[in-house]
Amino acid sequence: MSNSAPVGVPGAGPASTVQSVDRAITILEVLARTGEAGVTELAGELGVHKSTAFRLVAALERRSLVEQQHGRGKYRLGTGILRLAGATTARLDLVQESRGISRLLAQQVGETVNIAVLSDGAALYMDQVAGSSALQPHNWVGQRIPLHATSNGKMLLSGMEPSEIDGQVGELRRFTANTITSLPDLARELEEVRTRGYAIAVDELEIGLTAVAAPIRNGHGETIASMSVSGPTFRIDARRLPQLAQAVMRAAEDVSLRLGWRGAA
Amino acid sequence: MSNSAPVGVPGAGPASTVQSVDRAITILEVLARTGEAGVTELAGELGVHKSTAFRLVAALERRSLVEQQHGRGKYRLGTGILRLAGATTARLDLVQESRGISRLLAQQVGETVNIAVLSDGAALYMDQVAGSSALQPHNWVGQRIPLHATSNGKMLLSGMEPSEIDGQVGELRRFTANTITSLPDLARELEEVRTRGYAIAVDELEIGLTAVAAPIRNGHGETIASMSVSGPTFRIDARRLPQLAQAVMRAAEDVSLRLGWRGAA
DNA sequence: CAGCGGGTTGCGTGATACGCAACTCGGCCC
DNA sequence: GGGCCGAGTTGCGTATCACGCAACCCGCTG
Questions:
Q1: Which of A85, A91, A126 sits opposite B35 (nearest CB)?
Q2: Whole-number Å distance, CA A7 to C1' D8?
Q3: pTM value?
Q4: Interface membership of A237 toward B (CB under 8 Å)
Q5: 3-state per-residue secondary structure call for chain A
Q6: What are A85-104's pLDDT values in tens digits?
Q7: Which tens digit of pLDDT belongs to each residue from B186-228?
Q8: A50 touches strand D (CB under 7 A)
Q9: Are A18 and B56 inside 8 Å of each other by CB?
């Protein structure tokens, strides 16, 4: 609705692709964004004829990547997506290796633990372990969260070249009074993250939400993911923060070691 | 490797699709199955030229549905899949409505709770809530499990026409001495499930694993999903089973009510 | 250093996916 | 109740686009 650009991938050039595949993927992403859509609506979104959109959707439906409501009607994402996603995480070393450690950490500190990676200008949750059974965070694996307003996001950004950062974050949207909204401020913050070894976000995405994140590195020493502990600000105060940071850093390092990281260079 | 059929979807006819989209999806499924594969390998799998496979993979990569290992090399499923999956579950009424109820049930009985739907001849886990923090089930959302050897699977099968069942289950693979491997036996078992209102599987998929499942229905009274409680057989004995069954049935009915089900016809 | 195996790219052609238009079907308004 | 409208679906002919070919690049191995 608010979106206007109808086709193509944002950053990349208009270079060669397989047109119909690209369109099919666009359909999937539109459905991910809107929840459900009809053939005509989809055709409008990608600027093709109804029949073309229909055939694409039909191809996707045949493999159950999308489903139509009840015989006739609108389409939504289907179970095939979940099958693929299951295979994705099952195969991903990162999730495999981190799961047990995350669970221990969550139990130890009693807060929610998340693992996130960079994905097209956002932090993408790969795994989540709930802490105290009390209130459950509404976020879930697969959700994308802004880079500049979260501890995970800042952690991931801190591993990149300053020149790249600009392109990744886009507009620095304000969520709360504490959100960092200027590029120089962000650069300064990231510098601090680098020297300190962990990232913090207090009331920056949401009032009352605090998080601490530490880097997960692969065998080459690159920061490939971020592990965070998050919870209500009233429970994670200034006194407790440093000790949480230590715990997350230790846990993240454990994961890094399992991924082939040999320790600080 | 063991697979031979190179193209197409098993059940459906060879009718019209968008060829390149279909091939692209096949690539995703091959990657889901094998974990990773190179261009040449993929080309072999779907019987096309290297360059064709490459272009398809490139199209998928541009949208991060697949990623290549490190610049050069093999391909695996990418984060884009997870993004889509996140949107899928976030939008699915079923998961939305069931989550809280599952959690309560898990807490109440201290065992793991699963929600599964039918997806191309297998039960597909849509959601999972761990019970006692002790041993964690290794399965995960997105995993596919056989229909004839699980409580969820039998529950889902029991909602179908007998004529359809044959096509869904395929070969009745044996997992343990208790696995049902003949079609007549299965039919008998399903009949029992229907009259009893819940399904059981004791040591049928794995020795030491017991589960009980109840139906989740939509507004039209169709069984669209199954909710199960599962745990080690030594903890779920013959005495405890009936009371667990009652608990699952009540929980599943709660979910059904939220989905518009008006109670038994 | 040469050979090999795998990924990548330019090119011409024919299969194929596209747009068009007609059809079906359900819902709504009159 | 009938006719209109809008949305999904299908057959057809054609221009496009995706395919196969072959050459190329590159890292690895012997």
A1: A91
A2: 23
A3: 0.80
A4: no
A5: CCCCCCCCCCCCCCCCCCHHHHHHHHHHHHHHHHCCECHHHHHHHHCCCHHHHHHHHHHHHHCCCEEEEECEEEEEECHHHHHHHHHHHHHCHHHHHHHHHHHHHHHHHCCEEEEEEECCCCEEEEEEECCCCCCCCCCCCCCEECCCCCHHHHHHHHCCCHHHHHHHHCCCCCCCCCCCCCHHHHHHHHHHHHHHCCEEEECCCCCCEEEEEEEEECCCCCEEEEEEEEEECCCCCCCCHHHHHHHHHHHHHHHHHHCCCCCCC
A6: 888 776 677 887 888 899 88
A7: 999 999 999 999 999 999 999 999 999 999 987 777 888 999 9
A8: yes
A9: yes
